[in-house]
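HD domain-containing protein
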Amino acid sequence: MVEAINEYLSKCPEEVQNHCQRTGMLMDALLKEIDQSHKMKGYRLDGCSPYYYHDLGKCIVPGGVLKKKQDLSPGEWKIMKRHTRFGSILFDQLRELTENSEEKDFCQIGGIVCRDHHERWDGGGYPSGLKGAAIPFLARVCAVADSWDAMVNNRCYRRRLSADDALSEIEKGIGTQFDPEIAAAFLRMKKCAIRRESIKQRSVEYIVR
Ligand SMILES: [Fe+2]
Ligand SMILES: [Fe+2]
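Predicted structure tokens:
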């Protein structure tokens, strides 16, 4: 099953594959921070969690749209937004193909995260305009990790933000774009990691000098 999903993912540009992987790792850490990672244990297959593939549907979006350096036209933007539905359709299809209940669960969760990770806490997201707790929990977790990773890495259409600027963007999105509790936990975790990193850096500089 994971092999079949990876085959779809391999059709995405490398930038998308790497983004999916980093976002998945970040979600692992965030779920641990909010003490929910134990709930995901039963849903892993071959060491992968179903939310490692949130942008899987981009394998169906034309490369010219995905890699465009200028602003997208309204039509291109419409197609880009469809990656959410494309991903959930791919997972639905794989779910129908298997008789194995663990694989079925994996595909169901993967499909939900694909479909709903661009929903916003205030109801202004897509594809369905779901609001607040009506957005599935893992999709709310993904929304924060996904936005962070998109901001702190270079994209074909823009330069990356500094960690400080990305932190304040997440802060601004509390209660509008993001679930307040999940975003607060993310900020706590990130600030702590950044502090640890700078202490490590300072001690390396001290030893080198
Ligand atoms: Fe996405
Ligand atoms: Fe994404």
